[in-house]
User: Which sequence fits this backbone?
């Protein structure tokens, strides 16, 4: 299913973000799932691209530049799917659930991980007649779980602090004292 991501509204730019290029890489690690005769499962079309676009939209909204050479945000996507089940004796209503699970890490282009967190969201189950929503209930659930996951990620101050830290140049190593030795180093008093 194609999913549309709607970025958070009224977010504030982060001081210093405009000087930090951020590269987003998404790895889709979702396993193939079995099919059940009692439920229908829906997978997101181009899930990695959807997640990457959502992350980049939220970063841009906060003032970060998308590009290489600064911070690296790696997202490992474990699951992004929905399932629907027919309710009642005749299946006239449907219950839909959306799931999103991913690990997000932030580090400099070379160096150790500064932030690592598993983000997961399961949208509240939606029951009712699908045509009342104007879109398929699985689509609604997937969009809700995606929005809630990124809202939670960007609410964590450690996430954006790690991006700011990862985008800064490494501090220069202090010069070590030089020992002068040999014949030229001997001074005499006369």
Assistant:
């Amino acid at each position: 299913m194609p999913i549309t991501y709607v970025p958070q509204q009224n977010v504030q730019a982060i001081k210093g973000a405009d000087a930090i290029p951020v590269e987003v890489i998404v790895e889709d690690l979702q396993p193939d799932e079995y099919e059940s005769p009692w439920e229908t499962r829906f997978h997101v079309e181009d899930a990695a691209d959807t997640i990457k676009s959502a992350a980049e939209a939220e970063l841009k909204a906060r003032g970060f530049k998308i590009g290489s050479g600064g911070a690296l945000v790696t997202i490992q996507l474990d699951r992004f799917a929905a399932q629907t089940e027919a309710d009642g004796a005749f299946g006239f209503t449907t219950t839909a659930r959306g799931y999103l699970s991913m690990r997000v890490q932030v580090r400099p282009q070379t160096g150790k991980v500064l932030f690592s967190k598993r983000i997961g969201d399961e949208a509240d189950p939606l029951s009712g007649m699908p045509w009342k929503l104007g879109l398929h209930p699985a689509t609604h659930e997937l969009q809700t779980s995606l929005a809630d996951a990124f809202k939670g990620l960007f609410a964590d101050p450690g996430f954006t602090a790690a991006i700011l830290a990862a985008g800064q140049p490494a501090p220069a190593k202090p010069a070590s004292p030089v020992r002068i030795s040999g014949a030229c180093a001997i001074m005499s008093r006369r």
Remarks:
- The first strand starts at residue 21 and ends at 28.
- The CA atoms of residues 26 and 52 lie 6 Å apart.
